[in-house]
Specification:
Layout lengths: L8 E4 L8 H10 L8 H11 L3 H10 L13 H10 L3 E6 L4 H11 L7 E4 L12 E4 L2 H14 L4 E5 L15 E3 L2 H12 L5
Parallel strand pairs: 1-2, 1-4, 2-3, 4-5, 5-6
Helix pairs in contact: 1-2, 4-7
The structure holds magnesium ion (MG).
Length: 198
């Protein structure tokens, strides 16, 4: 057992970190699951998000297939349990379009009780929730958190859950680390905060 007294706080995004939101959107429009990133899928998703704001919100609230959204990868559930069992504090940090349905989704997955805090805030406001690490897929979140932390001298690890849309040029990448699965993130942060290994 670790002798660590401090409980590390981790801000965890939901969509496209814990669950395959964009895959689900694509499915709603094409009727098939496509886990690859193709020009066709890119076009569908771009068109979807480029649509009119009011209709987008209505679709999110009424028609999006929230109930059937699968996990982003198979390490999500075991990773969350591993983090909790290691004495860490997983916290939801999400700008989801449906808060109640996000609670339902986490509940159905059997991981809702692992989270001590739920912060449903706009991406640009995620930095205001003080954590030791943050994992997200949105490059504008990496940038706003980095800017906020630098201005206040806050030290926080910014982790990018790698997705096709966040693989930008290194010069404007504000993420400190990139991971290709949730489990990779969990292994990294447990190792980082485990004082018994130092
Ligand atoms: Mg996201």
């Amino acid at each position: 057992m670790s002798q660590r007294k401090y409980t590390p706080r981790h801000g965890i995004d939901i969509d496209n970190v814990l669950r395959d939101f964009l895959g689900s959107v694509t499915y709603a429009f094409t009727g098939k699951w496509d886990t690859s990133w193709s020009d066709e899928r890119n076009g569908i998703v771009s068109e979807f998000f480029g649509g009119e704001r009011a209709s987008l919100t209505a679709w999110m609230q009424n028609e999006a297939p929230w109930e059937s959204m699968p996990v982003e990868d198979e390490t999500v559930v075991p990773g969350l349990y591993q983090l909790k069992e290691a004495g860490h504090k997983p916290m939801i940090l999400s700008a989801t379009h449906s808060v109640l349905k996000a609670h339902d989704w986490l509940d159905r997955l059997g991981v809702h009780d692992l989270f001590a805090e739920f912060h449903f805030v706009q991406g640009s406001k995620k930095a205001h929730v003080l954590t030791d690490t943050i994992i997200d897929d949105n490059p504008s979140v990496f940038a706003s958190v980095d800017k906020w932390d630098q201005r206040r001298g806050h030290s926080r690890l910014i982790v990018a859950r790698t997705q096709p849309w966040n693989a930008g040029s290194p010069s404007d990448d504000h993420a400190h680390v990139r991971v290709s699965s949730f489990g990779e993130y969990v292994d990294g942060v447990i190792n980082m905060f485990d004082e018994s290994k130092r």
